[in-house]
Amino acid sequence: MPYRIATLEPPFQAVLTLSIFTTILLSGTISVTGWRPWPNPHPTVNTTADLLFAGSKKYEGSSSFVHLKYHMGPVLTADISVHILWYGTWRTSQKHIIREFINSISSSSAPPPSVSGWWRTVRLYTDQTGANISSTVRLGAEKNDRFYSHGKSLTRLSVQSVLKSAVTAATKPLPISPQGGLYLLLTAPDVYVEDFCGQVCGFHYFTFPSIVGYTLPYAWVGNSAKLCPGVCAYPFQVPDYIPGLKPLKSPNGDVGVDGMISVIGHEIAELATNPLVNAWYAGPDPIDPVEIADLCEGIYGTGGGGSYMGQLLAGYDGATYNMNGIRRKFLVQWVWNHVLNYCTGPNALDQ
């Protein structure tokens, strides 16, 4: 059925609240995983999904090892509005970069390879009625939290309290739009979120009615410019513990924000196809699913896999990118194409 949380009948909403993944209340997030120059190169294997996919999450070529399945949950077939909460201090120029990326997802004005071409792979996913992910993704409402209302150190669970403050604010609250609404919490470079830099660069989940009052799909992505640009803004910055590796020039002149763009794309793609963590994912465990962007983390062009990003494009100014927005260029990871059974992107050399 189309994704319409606002019209869920009370019994279904109660079941959702009480029985869907109650065991993950303390963490309550689905995290970006995959190849990055993490400080710990040998993370602990915690789940069956890790054992199945940790060494083989990235396939530019077809793979029989990946069994992405639809688990009958809702996906975002209605027009999508991305509501942004800017947490902390943000420059106007930084906001422009992120806004244009979101506006480019549905734009037909960008030359190929384009961000909208990248979204066409996401649109291949359907709900149980056969309805595709929406072709319309627009920038929704925005709200600023310049004074760090919940401090500069957040837990995964307190992120939901930040969102509650934004949707219940006395002045200019973010709208409550469960049908097609995605909530994007973006934290400034001086904000630390639990597991940031060491394990994750972003994560997504849905809000608990017991905290926020509503079931809303959301994602958090942090600006890593001060804390760990060599990890979460890779390849535009590289870590000191990998000698000899040279960074690539970022396409918009802001290492932290250009690094965020791919993580934002990752999260929006997975929120569209798995908003309640019961739709499209691989692996046996819905508590730690392997989703359509996880499977292609680190792949940005043909031939990508492991630590090799694949064939990329170079601008006249020497900046590296792989797709065009309305006026800007971006570097965005590919996503899994379940029809072809491999990672695809608009800059593939065989298109």
From TrEMBL:
Its main location: secreted. Signal peptide: none annotated. It holds the Pfam family Phi_1. It is found in: Secreted, Extracellular space, Apoplast. Keywords: Apoplast, Secreted, Signal. It comes from the Eukaryota. This is Protein EXORDIUM-like 3. It comes from Nepenthes gracilis (Slender pitcher plant). The lineage of its organism: Eukaryota, Viridiplantae, Streptophyta, Embryophyta, Tracheophyta.
